[in-house]
Amino acid sequence: MRNPLDAQSLALVTTPAVDLEAEADLTRCGALKDFWYVACLATELPKGKPLARTVLGTNLVLFRDEHGRPAALRDRCLHRNARLSAGDVFHGRIGCPYHGWTYDASGAVVEVPSLGPSQCGEALDAQGHARAGLQVRPCDLGKLQRFDTLEQDGLVYVFMGGDSKRARRPAFRVPYWGQPEWTVYFMVTRFPNGVTNLVENFMDVPHTVFVHRGWFRDPARKRVPARVKRSEGSVLVTYQQEQDTVTGLGRIFNPSGLPMVHTDHYFIPNITRVDYMWGERSGFAINSQVTPIGPTDSLVYTAISYRLPYDLPRSLVARALMPLVRWYTTQVIRQDVDIMKVQREGLTNGPGGGVFAGTEADLLHADIEAYRRWLLEGGHGEGPADEERGIVFWI
Ligand code: FES
Ligand SMILES: [Fe+2]
């Protein structure tokens, strides 16, 4: 795909409209469905309890099978279409709350109480049904649509595009997960906006001095040069600002005033990773995976990984600081939730929403949109060409 920008027009960035409706619709989202999406935290899915989630506009019921593996089915009973997520899980199967039809993790009906006493409390195999004289076997009643799942790094992923062998990328690895020097925790936030606008917000530096003023970055009248590299389905922004600082927790992470190295990285289709490093021994990585619920609603799974430069036993310091880091990140995320709601209100205010104007500071957003549009249109061919450019903006 041709780059929408050429070198001469870098100062003024315009891109075609973003179609948030199509992006969040399983039947219209093209290749956007051919990726693993986070369905829930592993801890949100205990054994024996169902969980309702909506991914790409599709209602799912999640539960764990008898081996503890996550399963995902369409959240609609074959019988009279009641929502299965309102039912119960027992022995790794889900029972409908309306008439008790029971399904296994493959989506097969294994028990229909109205078929008779032999159906109560026990699933019969083919011979068992023959012996019981049943005309209809539960498995004759059809199968619920099931979706492939995967549990990794504390997250449960679901694949909405059919056979997960077709996945365009492996499920994303949480930064520093399982590394002893690092502490990792998750936050789950419902955001009132679509995936494109959210990943752009998480990669956006100019907003920090407005939305997070005093919390994260203060307006500094500073010129920020950066390199924007679009390649292999990712957009990497490397800031070349001397003496960049973040307010708030920055002082705890950087007591000796080392230079901060800041990179923002987007990965198709829905992932960002923001890194702040101070030397080798101290850093903060924020990884956000955005799961589309609908056109302007998403669940964001944020993995916060941090490492502190102090020599005290790591677990002690990390544990002592955890409430503070959690509280701080919650405040910052709340500010983003509020501004994403404000953006949605403008976006949905009559026709024309989703057409964005921009300057050099928005080049990375144009690159993200180019990738997402290519996937929305089916993701054929090579996709947006690799490119690396320098930009300058002010904060
Ligand atoms: S609607 Fe599910 S068992 Fe009847
Ligand atoms: Fe923000």
UniProtKB/TrEMBL annotation:
Keyword check for Oxidoreductase: yes
Rieske domain ranges (all copies): 37-132
UniProt superkingdom: Bacteria
Keywords tagged on the record: 2Fe-2S, Dioxygenase, Iron, Iron-sulfur, Metal-binding, Oxidoreductase
Protein name: Phenylpropionate dioxygenase
InterPro entries: Cholesterol_7-desaturase, Rieske_2Fe-2S, Rieske_2Fe-2S_sf, VanA_C_cat
Keyword Iron-sulfur set for record: yes
Species this chain originates from: Archangium gephyra
